[in-house]
Design brief:
alpha/beta; Rossmann fold; 2 domains; 56% helix; elongated
Length: 372
């Protein structure tokens, strides 16, 4: 499943929203927004490297981002100094890096233009080992400028200090001292100090905007970050399916529901490092016993029959649709992200079908009545 397929699904959903009660439209749009950011607006994360450490850029990338045994990072073309560089990491993704180390005034002007073109998501500061505790005032002033310029083009990016040598006790570095003094941009952006290794790479996904997170977790083996994104996908898709399932038109929502459920499974596969495939998602759902063919039609037919009972019947149907979607999503997460067996995934599916999924925008009284 490529982005054009997902775009088609989103367009169908947005068209379907016009048929829903006004009270439901905004809550569903709120659930749809993170899905669009994660998958439609997906892009490579962007990092700026500042400081004075002489480590080669590709060596730096390998230390931070490359998984063990994944091979050396590479870049197809050298686009010039002080410009964004696209660096391929492993087999699943790439990052954009701007090396701002050693920039003079002319180079800083070029970097400022680069930041106007592409806003950085996060800054790294890596001082030379000999100067780890005494980063020069010039370096700190340069970093302040970079952070401020980047904020002109978008939200303020976080800053991580890296240490190439031993992290000795709790003694503050010059950068940390600057953050407590008059360096306001550094103080607002600095979130921590890490060793120059994969430790920081595993912590990056949580610091990135949604549109850059998928590419980041596909590159790295951070299972917790992958699981967090999968849970967001399951939560939002389940809520949307619950709202669609609550509508009083029997069987009309079946194609929308099944397509959404398969897209959710395909998205979880993609987050895990696999390629997106609606066919593979269909096979997985079928293996769970939640076949999207005859079995699903019979179940959805039962739901549709309930819709002929006005009021509470619609709410019950919505909750059933949401619970079914949640169960499929949980099973997919267990199988593709956590590495469980298919038997474990089936058990998770059966257990998770009991989960109640609130209908976005539904009145509290309707939900209470439906649970009785």
């Amino acid at each position: 499943m490529n982005n054009s397929v997902f775009l088609h699904i989103v367009e169908r959903l947005e068209g379907f929203l016009g048929k829903l009660p006004e009270s439901m439209q905004k809550p569903i749009l709120n659930e749809l927004t993170p899905l669009k950011e994660l998958f439609l607006q997906q892009r490579a994360p962007r990092f700026v490297l500042a400081g004075s450490h002489p480590i080669p850029l590709l060596d730096f990338t390998a230390r931070i981002f490359a998984e063990e045994g994944a091979g050396e990072p590479s870049r197809e073309t050298l686009t010039g100094l002080f410009r964004w560089q696209s660096v391929t990491v492993g087999h699943h993704g790439s990052i954009e890096l701007l090396d701002a180390r050693g920039a003079d005034e002319a180079a800083l002007a070029l970097i400022r233009e680069q930041l106007k073109t592409q806003h950085a998501d996060l800054f790294f500061f890596l001082a030379a080992e000999r100067a780890a505790k005494v980063a020069t005032r010039k370096e700190i002033e340069r970093l302040e400028k970079l952070l401020d310029w980047n904020s002109e083009a978008g939200p303020r990016a976080n800053l991580i200090e890296l240490r190439a040598g031993e992290m000795e006790g709790m003694e503050p570095t010059a950068l940390q001292q600057a953050a407590t003094a008059d360096a306001t941009a550094i103080r607002a952006s600095l979130i921590g100090s890490y060793p120059l290794d994969a430790t920081v790479g595993r912590a990056l996904a949580a610091q990135l905007p949604n549109e850059a997170r998928v590419e980041m977790v596909r590159m790295g083996g951070d299972r917790a970050a992958r699981q967090e994104i999968a849970e967001m996908l399951v939560k939002s898709t389940s809520a949307i399916c619950a709202a669609i399932g609550a509508q009083p038109i029997p069987l009309a929502d079946l194609p929308v529901l099944t397509t959404l459920q398969l897209a959710m499974v395909s998205g979880i596969m993609y987050v895990s490092g696999r390629e997106r495939s609606m066919r593979a998602a269909t096979e997985f759902v079928g293996a769970l016993g939640a076949n999207v063919g005859l079995g699903m039609i019979l179940r959805e037919g039962t739901r549709a029959a309930l819709k002929f009972f006005p009021g509470w019947g619609n709410v019950v149907c919505g909750m059933v649709a949401g619970a079914g979607t949640f169960a499929i999503g949980r099973a997919a997460t267990v199988y593709f992200i956590e590495g469980a067996t298919l038997s474990d995934a089936r058990r998770t599916f059966l257990k998770s079908k009991k989960q109640r999924v609130p209908i976005p925008g539904a009145k509290a009284k309707e939900l209470r009545d439906a649970k009785r």
